[in-house]
Amino acid sequence: MKIFIIDDDEISIFFTERSLQMGGFEAQIQTFLSAQEALNKLRNTHLKDLPDIIFLDLNMPHVNGWEFLESFKQLSQEKALEKCLIYILTSSLDISDIDKAYGNQLVKGYIHKPISLEDIQAIIHLN
Amino acid sequence: MLSINVISAAFAHSATPHLILSASTPYPIIAANTATGNWCNAKSEELLHQSVSAGFCKITELTGLAEAKLLQLFDQVISTQSAIVLKAEPPLLPENNKPSNPENCFLEIYPIVENNQVVYLVLKLLGWAGKPESASIAPPGTQQLLPLIFDSLANVIFVLEVEAPDLYKFSFANRAFEVTTGLPVNKVIGSYVQEIIPEPSLSLVLEKYREAILERKQVSWQEVSDYPAGQKTGEVLVEPVFDAQGNCLRLVGMVHDITERKEAEMKQERLTQDLYRHNRDLQQFTYIVSHNLRAPLANALGLVKHLPAIDTNTALYQQYLTHLKTSIQKLDTILKDVTLILSIRDRQHLGCTEEIALAEVCHQAGQDLAPALAACDGHLNITIDPDFTVKGIRAYWYSIFQNLISNAIKYRFADRLLQITVTASVETAEKKVILFSDNGSGFDLKKNKNEVFKLYKRFHDTDNIEGRGIGLFLVKTHVEAMGGQIGVKSELNVGTTFTIYF
User: Fold this and answer.
1) Which region, left, alpha or beta, applies to residue B243 given φ > 0 means left and ψ of -120 to 50 means alpha?
2) Name one GO molecular function term (chain B) (predicted).
């Protein structure tokens, strides 16, 4: 399984990566400190190397999580990205963020940071 | 003929009921002030066109006098061109609006005379509205009557003789003129408008007088003027008076002093703006708590949860501790930022407002950043007159320049030497403009229009540059806390200009 973690916060990436490992996720994890970097990678990645799961932060400079989703939608018209399941992983407690996330067809789930072992087990179970 | 609008405007704000009747049968009501309407529980417009004995609200009922008696009094006032004042018992209309002291109720009937003809009758119902007023039993002569009436009014009444184009001389001003402006009436009368009305109101006033004469109509406007009695805001109305040949002889004017109303409106507006700003701050702080404050907290919570399962003698454990420390420090920084911003927003230091020599503060900020400027071969060009001052707080102005210069250095364009220019100018007597420009990397204003001055927002594609995204937020907060405004123009790879208005 391949996983992308997109987050501008290095400590958050460290923690999520560690949690996935501790939760028994046998996966190849790639991390990105900016959404733009992740979009570039998706554009230039062969279909077989596309991630199965993307953990996406919302509050990021330059290209935020919502803008990433917009670009991802456009990209999916050129490229078969259906297999990528996007989970919002954010510290935001803003109700409007939750509503907006669940209103977006690309979003599979919404997880409040810090990600827990229970969250990871649920994702493993679904996939 | 003397305009009914001018006459009725003179009585409009009086607390005493006034009715103006046409001086010919059937003596219809052609104007009634609000006090009359309030007294008889009707809108003043509803009283219009009612006559002595007919209509919705008959004058006989309003005055409590029989029709024959009223007609006799009107004939007497018209034929003698003299006023009549008689003690009267007001009718109990309406039932719940009895005068406080029926002994002090008088009916006064005044003629308004023009060209030796009585054109209007004014009925003044003294004591009717429940507020006793003194009345003179012996009526004054007709010649002195109008000035006496006008002197009893709260509104300013004046008459200007038109001597030549743009040459207007005061021939009459009532006592309210003196009370409102602080200028003695005896000095006003005989003076030209230019000697009495100060600029910038004078230009507006002369323009309106010209308009009234040229278009032969009543003209009204609002003006703010500085008089010995203070700054006054008035609603002005002037009516031109022409002779048979169509020459404008005089201007009859009325001013309703709305200074208090305007001040109340401004206070209300300031309160609304404060409320809006507080609401916006609250939304912003909710955002900060839910996003920025929560992020390091969530990291710390997660790291602490993992710690018991990690061997304390490993490098991984040390890595966890380092991240934990960083997260807690970040939390502390955000809390300090929020406290700093709140202290500025609360304007705790506004008592220390002083005239600041801007060039000096700007030079000081530039000197403190001189090593960073020199390191990039940047040049700071301050062209502010040493005598140019703005009101404010020195520390805030220093912070504004320090943040702007620091940002210009951080986000300079890599392929050219940094040039920063600071200028200041006086745009109007009440508006000063400070321009801060650089030839740096600029940014996409279309994309970031609403984000530029927001807290913890960064919009340059330069991830290697240190910064928390608080500098411009502080600049805007400082500017607004001192009562100014800030705007920005920027073009990618060309540069940025901040404009501060004070």
Assistant:
1) beta
2) phosphorelay sensor kinase activity
List pLDDT tens digits, range A41-68. 999 988 888 999 999 999 887 889 999 9
What does the pLDDT look like over B437-458, one tens digit per residue?
999 988 888 877 777 888 777 7
Distance from the B202 Cα atom to the nearest Cα atom in chain A, whole angstroms: 54
Distance from CA of B302 to the nearest CA of A (A): 5
A window 15-34, beta carbon within 8 A of B:
15, 18-19, 22, 33-34
**ipTM of the modeled complex:** 0.94
| Structural domain B1-142, CATH architecture | 2-Layer Sandwich (3.30)
For B349-502, CATH number out of 3.40.980.10, 3.30.465.60, 3.30.565.10, 3.30.420.40 equals 3.30.565.10
Residues of chain A with C-beta less than 8 angstroms from the C-beta of B461:
62
| DSSP for B109-131, written as a single string | EEEEEETTEEEEEEEEEETTTS-
Token pair belonging to B420 = 């920063």
Nearest CA in chain A to B300: A114
Which tokens in the block code for residue B36?
Answer: 């009359």
| Interface touch A62/B287, C-beta < 8 Å | no
Report DSSP state, residue B347.
Answer: T
